[in-house]
Amino acid sequence: MSQLSHKSQLSHKIQCQEEPNLMAKTLHKVADETLDIAPLSLKQQQVLRALLECGLPHVAQPYLAIAKQIAATQTQVLAQISHWQEDGLVKRFGLVVKHRKLGFKANAMVVWNIADDRVSEVAEQLSSCAEVSLCYRRPRRLPDWPYNLFCMIHGTDRAVVIAQIAAMTKKFSLEDIQKDTLFSFKAYKQQGARYGKKGDVNG
Amino acid sequence: MAMQLSQLEQNIINLYQKGFPLCSHPYRAIADELNSSEDDVISAILTLDKAGMLSRIGAVFNHKKAGSSTLAALAVPEHELDDIAEIVNQFEQVNHNYGREHYYNLWFVVTAHDDKALIDVINSIESLTGYQVLVLPMEASYHIDLAFKINFAESATGKH
User: Fold this and answer.
1) Which residues contact B127 (CB under 8 A, 6 or more apart)?
2) Which of A58, B31, B128, B136 is most open to solvent, judged by the fewest CB atoms within 10 Å of its CB?
3) Burial annotation A10-49 (CB, 10 A radius, 16+ → b, else e)
4) Does domain A106-183 have CATH number 3.40.190.170?
5) Do B6 and A86 form a contact (C-beta atoms < 8 A)?
6) Interface of B with A in 16-45 (CB under 8 A)
7) What phi and psi, each to the nearest 5 degrees, are found at residue B151?
8) Interface touch A94/B20, C-beta < 8 Å
9) Contacting residues for B63 by C-beta, under 8 A, at least 6 apart
10) Which residues touch A158 (CB under 8 Å, ≥6 apart)?
């Protein structure tokens, strides 16, 4: 498969997933549901999102500090974040830790080549294991990359992680399935995702 | 464990990776919950930040709703890996980048505000590095739990 077709698949995939005007929808929701709080403008929402991706300042009133940066009130900022949480745009709000620094150095990506008609079933099984923190299906890229199911396992000890993978392989009778384990040996970069357009925020 | 964490620091890590208080004085709210003081909570967070354990306190956005993203990988000769990783890191749209033990030895996540910007980044990485990028966008998500529950039992001597 050529690289070009990889990318056009990617493009198609993303277009299918895209939700245009999500922020505008949220804007209307805020206006509908909380009549006493003026909604943020689209531009303010964009900048707020970028600021939240960079992280709260470590001051006693962080939301007030952020509100001042976008010429809004603290109440508006808090209402907007609540709405994003309810909408599912924000899936988690809190400390983003660097797991390697916390001792989670045995970070393994386990990749499996599961028959297409079994992939959901096996994914559910693997996801039920407490040590699996992420489980995604991704496309195969034949002949270079035959794997379509990805699990992340974060552990403090490599031998323990290897034993955990062996145990789940046995438990779900996956011994005959082609798989590979990719331990990380170096984190070149680890930071929160930033979706904001360049130039929205200073720094 | 790189350093001993106080009981307060441990509790903050384990309890506030999600559901961080949304109120005018969030650190005071945490202090009330953990029987501490606002100053001590802020200082604990500054300590974690200084020790490099904290990336940030903020929002983790839903990838599907918030923009375009993909996992990507490169297969590069070992002696070039650090240099290539540096090139990849230069893109602000790259938010994770790991060396992994495999023929594909550099794995990173690219996140952009739309699909065109994402593809532009991948094309730029290819032209700057001279290597073809393996592009693996998520097709289905079965499980996400990135709120690490840390078992501090072994190191919990506690300063607090």
Assistant:
1) none
2) B128
3) bbebbeebeeeebbeebbeebeeeeeeeebbeeebbbbbb
4) no
5) no
6) 16-20, 22-28, 38, 42, 45
7) -90, 100
8) yes
9) A193, B69, B111, B138
10) A106, A183
Residue closest to B99 by CA, chosen among B118, B110, B86: B86
CA–CA gap between residue B138 and residue B146 (Å, rounded): 16
Tell me which chain A residue has its CA closest to the CA of residue B56: A55
Residues near B10 by beta carbon (within 8 Å), at least 6 away in sequence: B150, B152, B156
Cα distance from B3 to chain A (closest Cα, Å)? 9
B residues 62-121 lying closer than 8 A (beta carbon) to A:
62-71, 85-86, 88-89, 92-102, 104, 106-109, 111-115, 118-119
Nearest to A194 among B25, B28, B111 (CB): B111
Average pLDDT, integer, range B104-127? 95
Domains of chain B: 7-59 (1.10.10), 63-136 (3.30.70.3460)
- Measured between beta carbons, the chain A residues lying within 8 angstroms of B97 are 187-190
- CB contact, 8 Å: A123 with chain B? yes
Helix axes A22-33, A74-87, angle to 10 degrees: 120
Take residue B46 and report the two structure tokens written for it.
Answer: 């500054």
Task: Please report the residues numbered 57 through 76 in chain A whose beta carbons come closer than 8 angstroms to any beta carbon of chain B.
Answer: 58-64, 74
**B134-136 and A106-112 strand pairing:** unpaired
Taking residues A62-89, report their average pLDDT. Answer: 95
CA distance B122 to B88: 10
With CA atoms as reference, the chain A residue closest to B116 would be A11
What are the extents of the domains in chain A? 20-87, 106-183
pLDDT digits (tens, 9 = 90+) for B42-101: 999 999 999 989 989 999 887 666 678 999 999 999 999 999 999 999 999 998 999 999
Q: Are B62 and A85 in contact (CB under 8 A)?
A: no
Pick from B56, B102, B135: CB nearest A55: B56
